[in-house]
Structures are given as structure tokens and as C-alpha cells.
């Protein structure tokens, strides 16, 4: 069940759709599809494919993602002879930790938020201590050899300029032999574009494994379109609303519709809040509103007041309660509109991912889109893999599960 991004017939690199694609599901495994990934059959919160130290502080969804992407990166690194992996937009460093301390890769971890980097370094130390204790308790355990923790760097990566720090080899990786593999797990908006551009223009970058997200944050022009083929399409423009819709999970929302619970009114409340924001500050369009808890228990004016505060406006602005009540009366129409917009999500995501694939193929690189995450866990489940020398049938090996 779910939706499958379909490559456009007649486009460069188009093949018959096979297993590639993704679906979406609810917050519990398979509540939208009835399928539970095998690694969570025994315990829905702990992957049986990761040891306890690597599961600590990591949610089940992320456990699955770091394991699958980490294993793919390890295979790709071995196939392309890379000496160093660069994890861009690494956040708290869960993927970097698994690749370095779990799989034995040399990893540079780049993140723009100092607080996240500091937490990542604390978690690195905690994991190292846990692994050392485990080895003392069980000396027969065979590990990967000398462990190297990730090398963390605080740096913002701009999609329009080269980041030299990203390209520098680690101290114990000789510069004359450095071959880099760039990766990003759900690198937000233009950050995924930055990975593609660094791969395409620098000879020391030999391979790429990129999982994108937050399409609404792509710049246009700049982040989309990238390929000449898509740029030449009539009507290729993707306004914010379409790009934002492509980030939602269809099956999860379908389940909410079937239950017809009060949580659906969030859409109506958010639309009403937008009218108040635009009246108070017309230049402020679609500001991010961090999740307001238990929306369905709030009166619409209470939600608007909390929303105003979260976008930096005065929560005590005078409100037209009659107008807000009139907006609330349109709740079912707002839900219907949102549902119709969501039906376009597969088409929009297909266009964005196809554009990135073609951008690389137009330059003579070898690229594929591979479905590596269980769609019941991770709706953005396609990884864009690229190399500068042909791998042929070996590409298919990258998406297979390790035994």
C-alpha cells in the first residue's frame, strides 16, 4: 500500500518501475499497512539488528535508518575504495557513530548547530564506554578492530558555494590518497543539493549516498530544478504548497481520516492562524509553528494565541472571534482541500528525485535511486546513490539486507 514515485516515461534513464518506491504509515509499525519489519517483531522499540549500546538514545525509526544507510555506505565505500565518509547535516551523530564505531569507517561529521555537536560528542564518549564494558564482560566478542570515533566539525554548508572543510581529509587519512564518500540522512532542503554539487565538481569525492527531505525548503531557482531535462519541461514549477505536501505520509493521514478524530481540526486551526499572522505582519508568510500539544482540546482562539507567540508575534493581539468561529465552521472543507493536495505528493516527490538523478546522469555519472528503508517506518525511503565509475549490477547489492 502507499504511493510509489514513478519515473516519467520517456525521460532519460527511465525504466519500468520495479521495487523502487515508498509508502507511508502511522506512528506505530505497519498501522497503515499491517506490516511489521522483522527487526521489530520481538520488541517494537528495539531493533534486533542493533546491539543495545547502538540503540540507546535512538528512536526505533532512526535505529532502522542508521542501520540500513550505514550498511549501504559501508558497501559503497568498499566498492569505490573510499578512505573517508563525510556525514553532512549529522545532527546528534547517530549515523556517524554507527558508521565509525559500529562499522569501522573513518567518518567526519559536519553539523551547523553547536549544541547538537556537543551532544553528539557526549554520546560518542558514552557509547565508547558502553562498548568497552561489553567487551570486558564478554571477551569472546569479535569486534571490527581499532575504533575511531567520528571527527565532529561545526560548520554550515551552503548549497551555492564549496565547503573546503567538507573536503579536507582527516589527519590519519593521507591527503594524496583521500577518496571521499558523501552522505546525508534526510539532509534538509538545499543541504541535499549541496551534497550533489560537491560530488559533481570535486574529483576527490568518489561516491554519494543521499536521502533528502523537507522539499518545501528548496530554493527555486537554485535547489530545483537541477537538471537540464526538467528545467526544459513546460509547467515544471513547484510552488511551496506542492513541495510541502510532498513531505507528508499518505497512509498515516488516510488512517486519521478513517478515524475522523478531533486531531484533524489542526489544519483548520493552522489556516485560521495564518490569516491572523498575515493581517498582523503581511510580509511574514508560512512561518514554522512548532507543534502545539493537544490541539484538539484548545479553543481556536487559544491555539491562535499560542501560535502567535511561537512565531514571535504578540499573543495578546486583538482577535476577531466571530471571524475565527466562521473559519472553524469550514473545518471539513479545509480537510477535504488538504486531502486533495496530498494526493499529488507522489507525483511531486517523483519529479524532485528524478530531477536530481538526471542532474547527475547528464554529467556522465552513474546514479540510481534505491529503496532501502522500510516504508512503514520511513516515508522518505529512497537513497540517491552515485559513483564516478560504473558499478554495473553491483548497484543492486547495495540495497540488500546484510545477513
Automatic annotation (TrEMBL):
From the UniProt entry, list the residue stretches annotated as the region Disordered: 1-48
Biased composition of type Polar residues is found at 34-48
A Pfam family assignment: Methyltransf_32
PROSITE patterns the UniProt entry points to: RRNA_A_DIMETH
InterPro entries according to UniProt: Methyltranfer_dom (IPR025714), METTL25 (IPR052220), rRNA_Ade_Mease_Trfase_CS (IPR020596), SAM-dependent_MTases_sf (IPR029063)
The record, for SUPFAM superfamilies, names: S-adenosyl-L-methionine-dependent methyltransferases (SSF53335)
Give one GO term, molecular function aspect.
Answer: rRNA (adenine-N6,N6-)-dimethyltransferase activity
What residues does the Methyltransferase domain cover?
61-219
Q: What is the name listed in the Swiss-Prot or TrEMBL entry for this protein?
A: Methyltransferase-like protein 25B isoform X3
This protein's species is Physeter macrocephalus (Sperm whale)
Amino acid at each position: 500500500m502507499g504511493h510509489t514515485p514513478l519515473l516519467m516515461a520517456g525521460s532519460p534513464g527511465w525504466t519500468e518501475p520495479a521495487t523502487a518506491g515508498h509508502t507511508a504509515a502511522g506512528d506505530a509499525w505497519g498501522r497503515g499497512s499491517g506490516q511489521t519489519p522483522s527487526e521489530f517483531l520481538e520488541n517494537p522499540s528495539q531493533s534486533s539488528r542493533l546491539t543495545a549500546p547502538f540503540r540507546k538514545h535512538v528512536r526505533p525509526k532512526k535505529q532502522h535508518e542508521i542501520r540500513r544507510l550505514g550498511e549501504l555506505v559501508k558497501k559503497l565505500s568498499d566498492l569505490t575504495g573510499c578512505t573517508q565518509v563525510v556525514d553532512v547535516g549529522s545532527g546528534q551523530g547517530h549515523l556517524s557513530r554507527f558508521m565509525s564505531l559500529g562499522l569501522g569507517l573513518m567518518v567526519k561529521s559536519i553539523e551547523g548547530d553547536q549544541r547538537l555537536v556537543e551532544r553528539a560528542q557526549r554520546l560518542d564518549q558514552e557509547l565508547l564506554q558502553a562498548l568497552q564494558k561489553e567487551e570486558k564482560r564478554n571477551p569472546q566478542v569479535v569486534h571490527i578492530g581499532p575504533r575511531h570515533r567520528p571527527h565532529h566539525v561545526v560548520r554550515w554548508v551552503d548549497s551555492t558555494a564549496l565547503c573546503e572543510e567538507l573536503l579536507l581529509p582527516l589527519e590519519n587519512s593521507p591527503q594524496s590518497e583521500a577518496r571521499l564518500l558523501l552522505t546525508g540522512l534526510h539532509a534538509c532542503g538545499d543541504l541535499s543539493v549541496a551534497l550533489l554539487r560537491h560530488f559533481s565538481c570535486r574529483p576527490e569525492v568518489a561516491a554519494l549516498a543521499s536521502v533528502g527531505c523537507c522539499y518545501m525548503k528548496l530554493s527555486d531557482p537554485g535547489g530545483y530544478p537541477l537538471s537540464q531535462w526538467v528545467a526544459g519541461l513546460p509547467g515544471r514549477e513547484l510552488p511551496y504548497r506542492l513541495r510541502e505536501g510532498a513531505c507528508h505520509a499518505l497512509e498515516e493521514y488516510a488512517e486519521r481520516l478513517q478515524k475522523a478524530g478531533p486531531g484533524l481540526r489542526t489544519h483548520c486551526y493552522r489556516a485560521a492562524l495564518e490569516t491572523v499572522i498575515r493581517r498582523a505582519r503581511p510580509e511574514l508568510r508560512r512561518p514554522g509553528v512548532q507543534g502545539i500539544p493537544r490541539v484538539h482540546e484548545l479553543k481556536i482562539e487559544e491555539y491562535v494565541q499560542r501560535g502567535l507567540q511561537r512565531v514571535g508575534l504578540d499573543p495578546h493581539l486583538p482577535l476577531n472571534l466571530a471571524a475565527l468561529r466562521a473559519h472553524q465552521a469550514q473545518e471539513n472543507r479545509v480537510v477535504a482541500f488538504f486531502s486533495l493536495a496530498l494526493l499529488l505528493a507522489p507525483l511531486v516527490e517523483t519529479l524532485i528525485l528524478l530531477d536530481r538523478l538526471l542532474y547527475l546522469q547528464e554529467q556522465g555519472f552513474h546514479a540510481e535511486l534505491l529503496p532501502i528503508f522500510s516504508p512503514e517506518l520511513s516515508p522518505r525511503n529512497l537513497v540517491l546513490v552515485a559513483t564516478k565509475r560504473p558499478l554495473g549490477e553491483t548497484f543492486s547489492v547495495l540495497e540488500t539486507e546484510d545477513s
